[in-house]
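Forwarding these from the shared drive since the link keeps breaking.
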Amino acid sequence: MQDDMKTSERFCDYYKQWVEVYKKDAVREATMAKYYMTQKWIEKLAPNLKVSELNRTEYQKILNDYAKEHERQTTLDFHHQLKGAILDAVDEGVIDRDPTRKAIIKGKTPRVKKIKFLNQFELHTLLAHLDIRDEPNWDWFILLVAKTGMRFSEALAITPADFDFSRQTLSVSKTWDYKGNGGFLPTKNHSSVRKIQIDWQIVVKFSELVKNLPEDKPIFVNDKKIYNSTVNDILSRHCKVCGISEISIHGLRHTHASLLLFAGVSIASVARRLGHASMTTTQKTYLHIIQELENKDVDLVMRTLSGL
């Protein structure tokens, strides 16, 4: 009887219940928001589709309709979130066969991507233009992200106590809930908890900046609500004045990693510094740079072999 009720219920209702049972309080808020967004799209695209009617054709129609308004990668993410619920329905015997099998992922032509990182000259120009005062401001924040490659939420959570100036390290062990009501949150993943080696310039500048600040309070957080767009706008204005490519704060993280890779730092070391869960993430994100470096390696190999 219960199985009959499940097969006769709407798929959007089944998915909503699945999200509440399996994902709520088990994933980060940002990830949960994506599941809720997928839920809304199912309610929009297939409001009356019953679980028992979900076959390969109906599922492909859903993907095709979603792909009309989204790029291929976004459609692929949508597919993966639906697939988790559907495979559970198959395991429970609510659906006979996996309708997601051999699904075709389509999508709109990707928009022209903005430049995500600066070259070494542009970064040098940007840092020289920053207004580094006696008290913390967003220019100090930009400097720290550029020099460490931290995520936005990680850099917001940095306190004076996180610096070990004698060992030239900075501990990353938490994030700041800038999207919610503030307060410390865990890092994105276990690998994100790390110690970042910092250069002597950062040691000198920040040791002076934080000496009179509370040890356990975030350096860049005050009583006002913090928006990512506010800092991005400040960075964008600096870029315009300097006549360099306009990037976001996250683009500074890409810049940091790109310059290290071009300098010959190993992928493993860059992955650890960025707090990536695996080197695969680093390789996918910076594939274009790695390919360019491989071309240089071929030249080096040929010169080395020809000299034997």
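-- next protein --
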Amino acid sequence: MITIIDYGLGNIRSLMNWFKREALEVVLSRDPGVIASSEMLILPGVGAYGDAMKMLKTYGLDDIIRKEAQEGKPLVGICLGMQLLYDASYEGGYKKGLGLLLGDIKPFKTTNVKVPHMGWNNLLSTKESLNQTYVYFVHSFYAESGGEEVIAYAEYDVKVPSVVKKDNILGFQFHPEKSGDAGKLMMDMIKELLDDNISSN
């Protein structure tokens, strides 16, 4: 079973439908017992970083997510959910994140492109299946990191980490559930991460 973390921020309906179309069992929950018994966690998010962390802390979900991820459970962050995996964000002042990935979330500081970064953009990657894949973005901040976890990025005045992976943690800066055929590639990555977890237990 896959659990989408319910903390009040996220485009949950389209995300749940995306998983259900793949015949994957998915539930929406913030219950610690449900989270602990899940095979994979999905951290969605739409909105402000500070609000999201506040809600996670209000429900005690920040500690639960860290614990489960550190123990090896697959965790997938989508859009704001991916940004929350990093150390901190400078959106509306300095705010600490989950600290599962090294780096900070920074604002676009440019007049060369429109902000927010909204619409279709192509991915650049050494992974052939991901390279030149068009996906759908909506965001005004991006991860500035050491880059070891970045397996695909988009050019938008700066290199925007767009697909990140470190051990059992996977993140998408864009919305795979809104990215048409390209979303199938991302779902394959999620399934592979899930299968790896199941086979190791």
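Residues 2-200 form a domain with the Rossmann fold fold (CATH 3.40.50.880). The first helix runs from residue 12 to 21.

- D.
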